[in-house]
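Deviation from plan, reported transparently: cytidine-5'-triphosphate complex.
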Amino acid sequence: RAEVVINDSSSPAAVDRSNESIKHNIKPASSKWRHNQTLSLKIRKQILKFLDAEKDISVLKGTLKPGDIIHYVFDRDSTMNVSQNLYELLPRTSPLKGKQFPTCAIVGNSGVLLSSGCGPEIDAHSFVIRCNLAPVQEYSQDVGMKTDLVTMNPSVIQRAFEDLVNETWREKLLQRLHSLNGSILWIPAFMAKGGKERVEWVNELILKHHINVRTAYPSLRLLHAVRGYWLTNKVHIKRPTTGLLMYTLATRFCNQIYLYGFWPFPLDQNQNPVKYHYYDSLKYGYTSQASPHTMPLEFKALKTLHQQGALKLTVGECD
Ligand code: CTP
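Because the crystal trials were delayed, the predicted structure below was used instead.
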């Protein structure tokens, strides 16, 4: 249990961001990082006490029916009904059933990826996880193209696809969905109220246009279980970010885990500015009290795991 303990109780809001990147200096990818298999297996075992990625990655068809009422995980007083479309898109069996991959890449969305040249390295992993439908084509040299699982918070439809206000945006989303080409589209539909219509729009498009994706909708207990695991290990996260969720799930089915694009700081290790996202102009907002995330704290925990060989973080150029 002690492996992921970090002794930092400082509030991320109080952190002096200009110095933050210096504290988090990580040696270049070529330095002597060694995978610690024993520790990875130990972490997998510990996480299995809280959740099972194979099951929690998605609610299955057999467990719900159209019309069922679901209370949102973070807004318990608000409910949604399981629509016919949602029901149709629930998988019958876990998309990860019996899966084991030698190496996995989890690609976060930090601008630190720009000019990294990490694309080929990322694409060489056996399973590649991406977050929030982040674009790949225009950035393939730095982020790669291979996508085996991609997440989609409902808010992405608003942020990146203008809430599908007109045909142009609908077409843009359709193209992005078509490009997924058989990969898993992971939609946290039951987490927070407010995303219901957006999830429904996407479900409808997938069915209407026979889009070749394997949809997955995380279980109601996943977020609390993930938070429980990290809290037990003294990582006091408020609400896990998509990136941390993906790492926690990946420990179950990936033997070695490589993280790219995880860098929640406005300056890189050489004190050059870093965009919050590699593909848009969103600003750093995670330090605000209102933000549900505690990204620098998560990063610190991941960095400790990197140093112990349980995962590998790449925050600069690839070889
Ligand atoms: N990330 C990071 N540093 C950044 C931006 C992102 O480490 N500057 C990681 C985080 O783990 C994040 C993941 O990359 O979860 C994907 O980025 P984003 O799409 O912004 O993540 P969300 O956590 O889903 O953000 P939000 O809840 O605001 O939608």
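The beta strands are 69-71, 79-81, 101-107, 127-130, 149-151, 184-186, 214-216, 254-260, 312-314. We consider this an acceptable substitute for the interim report.
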